Amino acid sequence: MHAQHSPSDGHRPGHNHSSYVSEDEEVIQEHAVWILVYLSFFSPAVASLVSIYSLFTTLFLLFLSPITVFVRPRKPLAYQLHTLLTPPIYYQLRFVCSTYRSDLHSNIINPEDEYYFTHRSNPVLLTLINVLSPVYAAGIAVTAWVAAGFWFTALILGDPDGRDKKDDGRTVVLGVRRLWERWLIRGLR
């Protein structure tokens, strides 16, 4: 009896696992133009809004933390920062068609789990990633413009050898996307 594999579990019937690109990669490649536009123009603006939100949220929570000492039950500051600063990162990841999900960083975390908040969650890094993202996004935007120029040139000239079967310009754009994705994911670890 043969096991049925769905396309979403990474296997296609009759194909070698290493001979195809996963469906997630195909979706990402289909959206390469949108990703290029987002990284070139919208990413710095969205990152700036997220940065302002993160600064105000962090300062507000720090300002209120002495008052919350008298409130019971009291959730740790790390939990509050995590709950408020993680969703903007996930929104930015969705804009570049990222499939990153982490059970550790879902909003369903036991606030009394001291191990999580002392060893796994890093609210300082999460805040820094959110606050410094506009600077990094500006660099990513410039890199995306260079990638767009390369993609345009590669479309006109093509591959001089004629042996390459993939779109080199699209590959460069997706490489820029991976840089942005890695930066954002760093805040979630």
Topology:
Elements: H1 23-30, H2 32-64, H3 77-95, H4 114-120, H5 123-157, H6 168-186
Helix pairs in contact: 2-3, 2-5, 2-6, 3-5, 5-6
Give structural notes.
This protein is an all-alpha fold and 189 residues long. It is built from 6 helices and no strands. The chain has helices at 23-30, 32-64, 77-95, 114-120, 123-157, 168-186. The chain is elongated. Residues 1-21 and 103-108 have low confidence and may be disordered.
Task: Offer a quick outline of the entry.
This protein has 189 residues and is mainly alpha-helical. It is built from six helices and no strands.
Keywords for this structure?
6 helices; disordered N terminus; 189 residues; elongated; single chain; mainly alpha
